[in-house]
Amino acid sequence: xxxxxxxxxxxxxxxxxxxxxxxxxxxxxxxxxxxxxxxxxxxxxxxxxxxxxxxxxxxxxxxxxxxxxxxxxxxxxxxxxxxxxxxxxxxxxxxxxxxxxxxxxxxxxxxxxxxxxxxxxxxxxxxxxxxxxxxxxxxxxxxxxxxxxxxxxxxxxxxxxxxxxxxxxxxxxxxxxxxxxxxxxxxx
Length: 188
What we know:
This protein is of the alpha+beta class. The protein has 6 helices and 8 strands.
C-alpha cells in the first residue's frame, strides 16, 4: 500500500502531493512534500500531529515559516522526568533537573539536537518545539488550526470516498503517482 501526502492552501486548492510506501511515518516523508511547496513561499504551515517533530519545526523555523502544530500529550516514559519538570537557566546555558542535577551543554549532534549532559546521559533539544508551542498559543492561531478540518480534511474525505483513495488500486509507485496527479488535477 502507498500513502499519499497532500498539501493545500486555505481555499482548498491542492498545491502538491507525494506518494510514499505505506509503512513510512509522516515525519520521515515530509521533506519530499516540503521541497515541492517551499517554492510557493508559504508564511505558515498547518500540519497534523504526525509532523510535530523537532526536525520539522527546525526546518520550518529556519526557513522563516511559522509551524502550527496541534497539542499532543507528553510522551514521557514511566519512571523518567517529564520535559516540563526541567528548568532552563539562560545565563549559564544549562538545565536543572528535578533531581537537582545540572545538565550543561555538551554538543550538537548530527541530527541537530543540542545535548545537555550530567553524570548520566540526558538529551534536551526543544527550542524549536518551544517556538512552535508559542506559535500555537498565539491569539488567533487556534482558529486557524480549526480551519484545517474545512480544507485539507475535506480534500482527504473526497479523495477517499469518491475517488478510491481508501485502498491502493494500482501496483507500483509510478502508477499511484499518476492516479494521484490526475485525480488531484480534476479535484482542483
